[in-house]
Design goal:
It is built from 30 helices and 21 strands. With 786 residues, the protein is α/β, with parallel strands linked by helices. Strands 13-14-16-17-18-19-20-21 form an 8-stranded mixed β-barrel, surrounded by 5 helices. Strands 2-1-5-4-3 form a 5-stranded antiparallel beta sheet. Strand 20, helix 29 and strand 21 form a beta-alpha-beta unit. It is elongated.
Amino acid sequence: MTQQCTVIGVSPEVTRNVRRQFATQLSVERTRLLYQGSLLPTLFMLFNGLLCAWLLWSPARYLLVIVWLVWLLALVALRVIQVAAFEAAAPQRQASRAWRRMFLAGSAFSGLTLACAAIALVPEENFLQQAWVFGLLGMATLSASIAYAVSLPAFLSFALPCLLPPIAFLFYFDTGQQQGWGWLGLILLAALMVVAWQVNRLLDRSLLRRFQNQALNQDLQRISAQKVLEEQQRLAATVFEASNDGIAVFSADFVVLAVNQPYCQMTGYERAQLLGHEFFELPCSSDARRHSQAIEQALQVQGGWQGELVEARRQGELHPQWLRLTAVRDTEGRLSQVVGFFTDLSARRASEERLRYLAHYDELSGLANRALFRLRLLEASQRVRHSGRSLALLHIDLDRFKLLNESLGHELADQLIRKIARRIASTVPEADTVARLSGDEFAVLFDGYSNLSSLVRVTTRLLNKLRVPQRLNDHEVVVSASVGISMLTDASLDVDTLISQADMAKQHAKHLGGDNFQFYTESLRASTLERLQLETQLRRALEEGQLLVYYQPKLCLRTGRLHAAEALVRWQHPQRGMVPPAEFIGLAEETGLIAPMGEFVLRRACEHACQWLRDGLEVRVSVNLSVYQLRQGKLVSLVRQVLEETGLAPQQLELELTESQLLDNVEHIITTFEQLHTLGVQLAIDDFGTGYSSLSYLKRLPVDYVKIDQAFIRGLHEGSQDAAITRAIITMAGSLGLKVVAEGVETPQQLAFLREQACDEAQGYLISRPIPEPDFRRLLASPWQA
């Protein structure tokens, strides 16, 4: 039947192919199964042998039984050793046919040994012993039919020597009893052969199925590997075309076999114009042609070559490129192909040049940057030491540039910087170096300048040139600058000292209002150091509570009552005593200390106003604002927080802003004032009449008071211009619904004039100087008298 030689569901052709493909593996697997399954039959044979020896043990057969038993034990030991040796052998050695021959020889000797027990040891007259011995032989053969069925020759090598000699011996006798045992033995042998054949068929089918599955797995792996290879080829083709670098494949004699699109773009040639041509003969490979011998030698010896070349595109444009060539060899090690990778270095070289430029020049203005300026300054200082010449350094800082930047926007501010840089460079062509140090700071280095009058003329010309109005779109901008000048005439001084001196002089020019220049002097250095010391002491004063709040009363001209006061900060220095405000207020503005100082005054004034209110004294307290506080953008939240913490009603607080400060970011100030007015806080414009733009913005600012500057009050007398201005301010404010406060009232005549003009409040030494809080409390307790 077909099933006897094929696996179920598999065609005979497939089965034959599997047998041919795995013939060696099938033989090795059968041998392995024989050795693995031989231990149990061997042990069973030993058990049967021992049982036979016990059954046949008698004084007449002592020697014979002992000899047979020793032989049996030797065979068992040899079989065990043989199995252990097979298991320990390497897979390559297990495939040797010697193992199978040794197994067949061992099984044949084992069968003959058991047969000898039936022929030589069983007594003819003892039927019971004959039954036991032949039964044990049958069981041994039965176990072998199972264990050795994986190989029919192995089963027959044991079963035939074990059963055929005793059967022939039994048929030798004429008695019916012995012949009956012989027929029984033949029947048993036939039955065991059928069993062994059936088991062998099942095992063979199982082995074939296993190796068929293995063949299927191998086919699947091969198909999978083929798919992976195809996928890798598709991926390689994609990478080949998608690479940013140009890639070309050449034959062993450098004929172009394939190129990708980036290589075509790099050279400017079409693919068809490159394929089939010799690489070194192409117009786009002229520089590579000069290195052809070195390239070919390196490919043969080292397997690759790389280097930088300068090649020409089809349009004639030269470009740097990095070429890397890799040799591809066949199975015999001969050069079969060459793969070239071409990297266009044009962008990289441009980037490197750009970086080198930016390392020494300012990108926006095109002037030297701080690094190049310092390098030029060091070189010039070395020349000073060797030649005895002098250096002059101008440190230029634009005035109020931050305000211009915020008002115009960064784009127009950048345009302004570029124009200023061109003006500076064109105005001082004799300068050794013109540099931009930071956003609005420039430096000019003169090598060999020692004439002060020449420096004065050059700097004056520079300031005049900068002051010329400039057009930026629809804006006309006037820019001024503060210039500090230092000179290096002493070879012992270093460049850091020169820079520091110029910066000191520039700062002094700014303190004087800007739009001027100052030379560095030793007295300037002393005043700068004194200013630095004062700044340090002012910071300590904030930390140690040396600041005090004084109050200058305001008189209501309608009721004659002191109903308001301006809070003024004072500094009680532990060594110097009371420091004048003019010495530290400006310093606080410059260093940013005005913010914590203003918060201190605001908080202390609100606390005092609350205390006065609890004592039955209702007084409106006025606090001055600084531009720095407005710029921070935290003023509204600070005022709200202080009012909540102290419990002061918002209408009892008045905030004053100097009119000239309105020029600094007007839109932001208007927004801030609107938010403060929403809180209920009173707002005032201080020093009214001295600014330039208050009239144009007054209608947009939600203010409650205007304070006439004391310069107008000081010159009051009937018929004077100050009286006319004061009268006009009061009239204008009244028409706008604003109240007027007059500052600097020092005489009864001034007070009488203000009452006559319906001014609302007066403030000045006639009423009271600024006084400490306890004195102000006592002043409130008694009526004011002129």
